[in-house]
Design goal:
The protein is of the alpha+beta class. The chain folds into three domains: 102 residues, Fusion Protein Consisting Of Minor Coat Protein, Glycine Rich Linker, Tola, And A His Tag, Chain: A, Domain 2; 106 residues, no CATH class; 108 residues, Tetratricopeptide repeat domain (Serine Threonine Protein Phosphatase 5, Tetratricopeptide repeat, Alpha Horseshoe). The protein is 42% helix and 10% strand. It has 15 helices and nine strands. The longest helix has 14 residues. It starts with 20 loop residues before the first strand and ends in a 6-residue tail after the last strand.
Length: 397
């Protein structure tokens, strides 16, 4: 097992690979720290008029990114709106502004940007494989060139999240299907599809999507909780209770799953309603439109990086690897302030490169890993870091 040297830029995953031996992680980013939410700069800021006359487009973009990295989403939106007036139309900039608007509580403005004619046209374009990647920490460079450099998945996923928050489940359902088509290996996409289908009354579709979410992402307690609710509605109480227990095993603080487990044991109890939340607690950081942080694309300096103290080698049987090529992948993981992996962001890859059971085995070990938490000002911090995964080639069929 070899360590990965810390790097100054976040190692975003490309369309590459999947993994069996999990290696050592490194901290997401290093560099100048952006202003924190609520902090006042040491020197007075010039007025917007003075700044507009003196600052370059690149400087305004960098300022907007610094606010975004600090979670000051209202300030980021304000600066992005100013930037939008100074550059050619750019859908990457519109997406950044839409996310900042949504995270600061202005979903109507976000929705207008996400459903513009330009966004709708881009959403119907599958894009080449090289574009199927998350925005990097240096995303501000993409806001000012007048071209769309991003991934239409952002449009569908953000629309699904906003529609779900509004209770517009038919719209959420439509966009969740598009998100699954873009990222078919991601359990989170299938979870959102399952929840939207369930609220729409498509019980069979909801059951299938919830089970797929559980199989693809065995680390996601919300998928197990939803599967339990659907089983309870069908009268399968034993299966429901097992699903609630497995959700609590992943997150002992998951109140909804604990309450459902207790109520499901009562003979005359009626099933709990389906939830409105897509992801809960710290895992909401994985939602594009949620203000919960840290976000995958943030660029934040830590005094001490998160480092692995316990790693788990997942063993994939030869029968599952047979016929598949050797694969490698960098997997972003969210490590909380206790040093536990609470979320991951599977990069896009060709689904034919690895079997679904293999992927499930690889991800099952993540909750058992342990890290010494990242520190900033001597305080533990949740951070995105990454682990390298590798899968040896299987024997020919």
């Amino acid at each position: 097992m070899r360590a990965i040297e810390p790097r100054k830029s976040y190692p975003h995953a490309r369309s590459a690979a999947i993994v069996v031996v999990l290696l050592v992680a490194f901290v997401t980013a290093a560099g100048a720290q952006a202003p924190a939410l609520g902090e006042r700069p040491a020197t007075p800021k010039p007025s917007k008029r003075a700044r507009s006359a003196s600052a370059t487009v690149a400087e305004v973009a960098a300022e907007a990114k610094s606010y975004d990295d600090a979670g000051a989403y209202a300030r980021a939106a304000e600066t992005l709106r100013e930037l939008r007036q100074r550059v050619k139309p750019d859908l990457d900039l519109d997406i950044a502004l839409a996310l900042a608007e949504a995270r600061s509580g202005h979903s109507d403005s976000a929705w207008a940007l996400l459903t513009s004619p330009a966004a709708t046209a881009a959403g119907d374009d599958s894009m080449p494989r090289s574009r199927r990647t998350d925005y990097p920490w240096g995303r501000d460079k993409m806001w000012t060139n007048g071209t769309f450099d991003g991934w239409p998945w952002y449009l569908h996923r953000a629309r699904a999240e906003i529609a779900a928050a509004r209770g517009q489940w038919s719209v959420a359902h439509e966009n969740a299907r598009a998100s699954v088509a873009a990222r078919a290996n991601s359990g989170k996409e299938w979870l959102i599809l399952a929840l939207a289908a369930g609220h729409e009354g498509d019980k069979e579709g909801a059951r299938h999507a919830a089970r797929t979410a559980m199989e693809l992402d065995p680390t996601l307690p919300e998928a197990r909780y939803l599967n339990g609710l659907l089983a309870w509605q069908d009268g399968r109480r034993a299966e429901a209770q097992e699903s609630f227990r497995s959700a609590l095993a992943l997150d002992s603080s998951y109140v909804a799953a604990g309450t459902a487990l207790v109520r499901c044991r009562l003979p005359l109890s009626r099933p709990d309603p389906l939830p409105g939340e897509l992801l809960t607690g710290v895992r909401a950081a994985g939602l594009l439109t949620s203000a919960v942080r840290p976000k995958l694309e943030e660029f934040v300096q830590m005094d001490t990086p998160a480092t692995i103290t316990k790693s788990i080698d997942a063993t994939v049987p030869d029968s599952l690897r047979r016929g598949f090529p050797a694969l490698e992948m960098t997997l972003p993981v969210l490590v909380d302030a206790r040093g536990r992996v609470v979320l991951h962001e599977l990069p896009w890859f060709d689904a034919s490169l690895v079997s679904q059971p293999t992927l499930s085995i690889l991800l099952t070990s993540l909750p058992m890993w342990r890290f010494s938490p990242a520190l900033r000002h001597s305080q533990p911090q949740a951070v995105w870091t990454a682990i390298a995964l590798s899968l040896a080639a299987g024997k020919p069929n």
